[in-house]
Fold each of these.
Amino acid sequence: MSPRRSVADTLETRQRILDRSLAIASAEGLEGLTIGRLAAELGMSKAGLLGHFGTKEALQLAVVDQAAEVFLREVPRKVKQMPSGLPRLVDVCEAWVSYLEREVLPGGCFFTAATAEFDGRSGRVRDALAGMNALWRRDLRIHIRRAVSDGDLKSDTDVEQLIYEILGVMLALNHFLQLEHDSAAPRRARQALKRLLTK
């Protein structure tokens, strides 16, 4: 086997592990990831699987990164052609609703589940989750401030309050989709967001 093929095989195996890990973690939490279970499901040895990550924590951190990549692909990158400000904010929120509505991950919003799982803990996984959430709030803040400066939102808009309320709508949407299996939840989320984003 050529060195190039060996590297490609290693990367492909690592991606297969991450894809399965993310599916499990979105439904059962990051603590639901056990090396034994993953190895059995993927037809690998425990040592072979651990060889790609080293530790369970390293695997969890890689899954957080993988979840972020999926979210970026499904939400902000889908609307990157829209101008910053209210047009992009509206489209970002729609892409976010669609992402949850289409059940891209089997357990709904990975970050909602993982944050609830780790918010009371300390450590690198909790810090990674907090960092991802902070980056997303920063992006929302940029679009809201631009919308205010463009005159598309009221000049006295409380930016932090609006971020809080948008996040609240999305948390509620994930809850009603996952726990209640409420097919009306996306429509309700869209109505709530329209009220929030109308001048």
Amino acid sequence: MSTDRNIVLFDLFGVIARHQRPGALGKMAARCHTDTDAFTTAYWACRPPYDAGRQSAPEYWTAVLRRLSLPVDADSVEELRLTDIDSWSRVDDRMVAYVQSLCDVAEVAVLSNIPSDHADAFLTAQPWLHDLNHVALSGKIKVAKPTPAAFHHCVVAMRAAPADFLFVDDREENVRAAQATGMNGHVFTNRDELAAVIDTWLPT
């Protein structure tokens, strides 16, 4: 069932925003005087509850450091937190401009996995997000993709039907999860291909 609306629902990182800054994990590992591979493993293994808003930043970084058998102190935690936020702060300006242009022909929303404190920093640095129809950030809505509840949040918040959405993400598992809820989906590779898909999807 559709309400005959056209909502393009974007992931952030890998689509509109850039992936983590190269070398960032190595920089954080060096701050901890530990091996980059071991740090990277701990960083990602501990991430899901932080992304989903079930852990604060200090709780997350305490978990990472303890997994590495490293001492935990407030200064280290705060330095790691700020370095981490900076590492995820870059956007693709061409994609931002494209997303803004879509607002003239469709409803535009965002659904992204991002911890709550990262979300606060990102929303401050990227004021164009406030002009979209809805912004759902996992650390704020307390659920992360590909959990179905993340997609249902957008459906309910926008008072729409799943079929009204075209979900765009660079991760196939997330697109498949969106499609399983009844949304349309597209695995993002580049702006030109996406523009062609959206032009075809939108009614003439």
Amino acid sequence: MSAIRLLVLGAVRQHGRAHGYQVRNDLEYWGAHEWSNAKPGSIYHALKQMAKQGLLIAHEVAPSTAGGPPRTEYEVTDEGAAEFFRLLREALVDWGDQKQESLTAALGFIVDLDRAEAVALLRKRIEAMEGWRSSVVEYYDPAQGPGQFGHIGEIMNFWLASADFGKEWTLGLIERIEAGAYSFKGEGEPFVGVLGDDDENPYATGVPHAGDDE
């Protein structure tokens, strides 16, 4: 799964309505340009594509009072909301691709779910890890060490270490959530992770892009 669709839908959804530069600014504030493919061109392309697909509504707005160009503001449709939650749930469960950008994006929106559902999805992730690990040890014996396959064994050794750490980390997250950490859906005011229109972004790249004024 490409993390960019989840990130863009999530950013627009948090604002209610947002123009492209606001979405870019939020994603740079989250550091997504460092750990995912959320670069300006990809963000603006995703906005336009998802508008064509009916996941977003594109609203044409008037020029700013400061004389700037008119912008397009985007709003998530019912279909877009359904896609957002599908991608979110998939990223929390799926261990197979082992792409950290998808999980990282999902963690940023995990509190949009019910607490119980978030825990259930993370437990499914652990099941997937355990199943994948079992498939590796069918032909690789960790007790014999990586040398049994020469230096190639280090690949399988790395796979197992990653699965073991992933399980340990996920169990820790589940424990924190079950102990009451964070405000999940329906539990009160959530943590606000987006910038206001007048807030300065200390993490902005400052690199202009043709889509910034659209």
